[in-house]
Protein 1
Amino acid sequence: MIVDDLSMTFSALADPTRRAILGRLALGETSVTELAKPFEMSLPGISKHLKVLQKAGLIQQGREAQWRPCRLKAEPLKEVSDWVEHYRQFWEESLDRLDEYLKELQRKEKKRGKRKR
Amino acid sequence: MANERGSSSPSPALTVTRKVDFTAEQVFDAWLDPKSAGKWLFATPTGEMVRVEIDARVGGRYTFVDRRNGVDVEHIGEYLEINRPRRLVFTLAVPKYSTLYTTVSIEIVPQGTGSQLTLTHQGVLPEWREATQAGWTGILDRLDQEMTTITM
């Protein structure tokens, strides 16, 4: 598991403004000016956030058009979702083993009980 | 203080529930008895549990070392709450993969002849503690759709 990439995704997502930006971009690509509108923030302020998101690989800024549309890149977030899924699977398997272990313990105890009798 | 850490503010947490045919005491003890816990907790089918140390008191620490393909994977943490047989809270870190400490809570409720275990793993998404439901869950939901579109 590549933890460094994950940490970068986590810290990029730690800020509510950046999460809101991603939320907006999940609806479709848009310009920096449009992105800045809902926030009481200057364009340079927004650009700073966009840079963090870009560095974490969460967004991509187009070069083709003059308005340089921003779009969401889903892969890093997919990794986060996989990370959580990995833990879920880990605990499910652990609890399977716990159940199996207790059953085995019970079988052994029954055997021992029979021998005593 | 330990309690505060155990029941921290609402943060994204992972919950797994399981019904078992054993008493709450049987289930609870399997987490803290080194001989029992080493058989199943942090163990892998192909790995070999080479070391289990459990200091079963509040503030006590534990270490599980599972050897996987010749590589020792250490699971370490501290017990924050021990309330036999109902509740167990401990921190968990796997230094090999991450320096993060997460928190695991186990609630065991007697149910009929058996019991129900609810495991909550908090801090799996460490930096999102302040996130609201509208924040990250919404994003992930939309993202799932996005991913589906991309893969199609």
Protein 2
Amino acid sequence: MSSLATAPCREDALAVRGVSKTFVATVALAGVDLTIGAGEVHALLGENGSGKSTLIKILSGYHQPDPEGEVLVGGQRLDAGSPDASYRLGCRFVHQDLGLVESNSIADNLALVAGFPTRLGTVRRQRLRRGAREDLARVGLDLDPARLVQTLSPAERTGVAVARALHEDPTTPARLLVLDEPTATLPDREVERLLQIVRTVAARGVGVLYVTHRLDEVFQVADNITVLRDGQRVATVPTTSVDRAGLINLLVGAEFDEIQSASAALPPEHDAPLLVADDVRGQHLDGVSLQIRPGDVVGIAGITGSGRETLLSVLFGAQARAGGSVSMRGVQLPPGRPGRAMREGVAYLSADRKTLGGFLSLSTRENVSISDLGRFWRFPKLSRRREGREVAEWIERLDVRPRAAAPLPLAALSGGNQQKVLFAKWLRRSPQVLLIDEPTQGVDVGAKAELHLELLRAARDGAGVAISSSDTDELAALCHRVFVLQEGRISDSLTGSRVTAAEISRACLATDDRSAR
Amino acid sequence: MNTLRRSNLGPQTISGLYLWALFIIIFGFWTPDLFLTSATVHSVASSQAIAAMLALALLVPLTAGVYDLSVGAVINLSTVLVVVMQTKHQQSMWTSIVVTVVACAAIGAVSGIIVVKLKVNSFVATLGMATITSAVQLIVSDQTQPLPPINAAWTNLTQRTVFGFQIVVVYLIVLALIVWWVLDHTPVGRYLYAIGGSPEAARLTGVAVGRWTWLSLIASSTLAGVAGVFYASLSGPSLTYGQALLLPAFAAVFLGSTQFTPGRANVWGTLLAVYVLATGVQGLQFVTGVLWLNSMFNGVALIAAVSFAVWRQGRPTKVHQTRDAEVHEAPRADGDLQAVGQNAPG
């Protein structure tokens, strides 16, 4: 295991030198260096937007880096922007979305990428199975290749994805394995199993770039750690030379502590709560209780898999609720009934804008008006004049571009404008409680500010707003109070001067009592 | 066709009308004495009226993305039931019609329950119901094609002429107006199209997805039932007519979805497709008279028209591609950054 080699030598699995990436006006990566020796496990840490994904996409050939700087894989220069070249030099990737076909067997999944062994067009089952066993053995898994992927535990699935990525290809041996948040959705007890797989892979001489949000496993598995912040490499340190607190400071930086919550000026009124959740359980949720009051802007923070992504959806009834109760001004909301929640004045916008938020094939006008058609209906027809007028008002108020968007299909608008249209859909109902998942994900900077303004305006007008976001700056800028989720429970509640991006990040990553270091 | 959506009547959205004109000109010159006669116009209009009604029946659930393969079987059952009620069971004409239509609606209600409550794929559920309906039809008909009632009121129901057209053409126009009104001018239509766009997004916007899906299947089998009654009055009961009509009716709906409001199945596009195809087939039959022509022409026209529409629009496939790409490339993190890169110029 090489430790912190500064001069790249031939054995290095990966040597990134001075690589930058500029998107139109934004610098996503600024002169980053990173070296991974053969058989080294190197953790890459950073907040959302720090440049981790950009770096991975450069390695995979998805993004073309700026011309200066170079990437060497196994000593050979990587041609920029070519996925084929990346594969040929020995880069292998396992993304958070594993890309396995759950209803197929392990062997079939492995062969989907590697190709099926055939004779005269017929699949050779014996050989397929033998090959699958070899692939699995390479990552230290002993599973029956005939098992369906859906019967595997989460860690085993990730293992299968790793085995598939590392499938022996005689022409191009794997030199570098990139794992992008492999444990994000794994339960704790499964993590160790995966780490064992990672160690097995590294022991075979493959360099591993391990991207994660979870600090514990970094200390368990990584040899060296590189921290990115705002596209810059903040530090590269051997794991043995840093402790947890030190690492968190590297991650969030001290200067963020100074940022005050912009919304602190909006004092929460302490009226009777609008929405009350009590011991809510569901996917990734293990008993969450909270209240949303008029004028409140509540943030939901947490790392991926903590329950942050599912909480609002379960409160609204979009996703199944396994237990607990949700009430709106004293009226109980039945689980899984979005229509009921809407009638009580709740609005919910999913993070998945394209399949759950809006109707891409329908016009902007229809997307806005669908949330309440009753107001345009006078027998015998919908009044298109009134509908057109109201939609035009919303397009004007939210500054949707193009101005003539009403008859265009939603798919024709940019991400930020789509999100504005969906905001209009809900805001026109004057909801009393707004639940919004990732309000500005995939939205450009200008639209982001306007959407934030609309949320604050709704709160000022007496609505209760809850936003769940992986963007801690966004939470810090908007929220009076931030609930931090860990493993499906609220582990911390930040208010007042503690609502800062740095504090939220710290709280998300903080170890709870059970596994204190 | 002053619709809410892009009522873009440019050459691309009404290519069917041009094609229709082209057929009329070509065959008009080719066989003017046969083709350019009012008899031909009247005969095409009424012979296709039932097929058009069946296409309207398919259209309603299809707007919500639900397939109803049972309409062919339902139309057969309807023709037999309405006749047997009158001849064998001596019921009055109107009683027979009401009972028949209600029975057909009930078939749709059952399909709907299977689709909505048991969550069976609509393709499978209605295919099964189609087979069951065929069995019921055999029971009702005693496995023989019943004789039509001899009764002027019964034949006049559809064969009375209005301005030279058999009155069944007027019924078609009335049904089309009703379906058009529901789909284009009431909230119900919006809900159906929304469900067709994304059932889950519709559910999260408070649309009662189950209820509207159920009702759309009831509507389709009711329409098929009505069409069956008219067919029985027009041509007598049939054991096989409906099944032969099912796929051409689908073809008409898909073809029609390239017209007027491209990408969206709609009433006038469907009717246009039915009549353009019928005109072409009629003209060719005057010219050659070979038997295979009908199917060949319909099949080629469907594939050609829909391929053309897909190629020209390009949009739906593109959307799917970007969605896939995002799922694989950008799992949440750094989403903002990516968007800045993509959107900043705009």
